[in-house]
Amino acid sequence: MCKRLHEFVHVLPEFAWPFSLQQLPRNGIYFFCETGECWGHGDDRPRIVRVGTHREGNFRSRIADHYVVNERKTAFSRDQAAPKDRSVFRKNIGRALLHRDADPYEAVWEIDFTTRAARAKDRFRRDVEKERQVEHQVTRILRERFTFRWIELEGQDQRMGSKGLEAELIGTLAACGECCASFNWLGRYSPKPKIAKSGLWLEQHLQAPGLTEDTIAKVAALTSGTPFSVPSRLTG
After folding, report:
1. Do the Cβ atoms of 62 and 54 come closer than 8 Å?
2. What confidence tens digit (pLDDT) does each residue in 75-94 have?
3. The pairing of beta strand 46-52 with beta strand 15-16
4. C-beta of residue 85 within 8 angstroms of C-beta of residue 112
5. How buried is residue 65: exposed, middle or buried, by Cβ count under 10 Å (0-12/13-18/19+)?
6. What are the structural domain ranges in the chain?
7. What is the Cα gyration radius of the chain?
8. Distance between CA atoms of 83 and 68, rounded to whole angstroms?
9. Is 156 exposed, middle or buried (0-12, 13-18, 19+ CB in 10 A)?
10. In angstroms, rounded to a whole number, what is the distance separating the alpha carbons of residues 78 and 225?
């Protein structure tokens, strides 16, 4: 199933930085690949290293948060959330960088400053210049090393949660014994064991049941743009 999933995804248009948000759908599921990471099913095709989705109508803003399309968001203060607090993908890349370097600032990076309570309690611990430096590294890595593809899929319940298609996609990738992280993969330095061991920039749905013949057919239809009748068990 992992090989078939990759083959379907590989036929989709590939997006690399820079890109226009207007080219992207309002709703869908995205697949990130990373330079140097190859699948394990022959030749050197790129390996999917992250699958993600979003709440209704939010596809473009999720991608924008990952890549920090709005550069003004990097001009944060001690009393404002940093980009890593709006994107767990960014937070995970930063975690790996700091953990690799045995940097004690990792403890502060873990704090979610989107809440007023967290800012009031821990703002004094923040080194804003340090955070901006790490954010800049994360942005550079994302823009230089990662590309993404996507399938358009309406209906938040169809995409998200343990019964959504996203979970089956992640479960399929995580269960594959052929697709492994390269020796130099940054995620190996992650302090999150699920990331370091799975070879995926993910912690959720790694144990989810994988794709079935019904749902791989759904993926095939979505990647080809063919209308598809959703199996009743996926309608919630």
Report:
1. yes
2. 999 999 999 999 999 999 99
3. unpaired
4. yes
5. buried
6. 1-236
7. 18
8. 7
9. middle
10. 46
- State pLDDT tens for residues 80-132: 999 999 999 999 999 999 999 999 999 999 999 999 999 999 999 999 999 99
Which pair of tokens denotes residue 169?
């996609």
CA atoms within 13 A on the CB side of 236: 11
Q: Where do runs of H (alpha helix) occur along 110-201? A: 116-122, 128-145, 156-159, 165-175, 193-198
Q: Is 151 helix (H, G, I), strand (E, B) or coil?
A: strand
Q: CA 35: distance to chain centroid?
A: 15
104-132 core/surface letters (b: 16 or more CB in 10 A; e: else): ebbebbebebeeeeebeeeeeebeeeebe
